[in-house]
Amino acid sequence: MAKNQEVVITGKSKFAFVTRLNQFGKWVVGVYPDQASLPKVYKLIEEGIKNELKVDDEGQKWIAFSRPPDKTDRQGRKFSLTPPLVIDKDGRVLTDNIGFGSDIAVKLECYGGKTPIGSSYKAARLHGVKVYNLVPYEPETMAEDPHEVKAAKALNAQPEPKDEW
Length: 165
Prior knowledge:
The protein is α+β, with helices and mostly antiparallel strands. It has one domain (4-157): CATH 2.40.50.140. 16% of the residues lie in helices and 40% in strands. It has three helices and nine strands. The chain has helices spanning 38-47, 139-142, 146-157, and strands at 4-17, 27-33, 54-55, 61-67, 70-72, 78-80, 85-88, 103-114, 120-133. The strands form two sheets. Strands 3-4-2-1-8-9-7 form a seven-stranded mixed sheet, with helices on one face. The protein has a two-stranded antiparallel ribbon with strand order 5-6. It is globular, with a radius of gyration of 17 Å. 18% of the residues are buried. The model is unreliable at 158-165 (pLDDT under 50).
């Protein structure tokens, strides 16, 4: 794999926290890769990314990719990352929440290098999401556990993040 490259994974959305941070403080999207993208996922895993291909209760394979709002470089300097770009099929910025089963393409920034002790690493960071067929996000249908439904509603009630310009 080249030092930096972009990889696009297409499939159905499992979950998407791309307009606001999830409970762990990251932007993240879960995707069920389609048959054309599954070999790309296997190749990334073979090259050493730490993202895990999981299997849900119905036997469907899915994987999550994330992007933190800030990072620290090797010299200890902190810097901010912008939110992932989210667009619709026509290239317009999309601010709607993405529901389960939406047809999406996930653009990844894939990079690698050497650690300070000399070992190699590979990583894939969420760069953007293109939504081809938006399924409305409905927290009541996303979870059967009443606590999860309440948490999802509370997440929707959070204020939009403010630009720090």
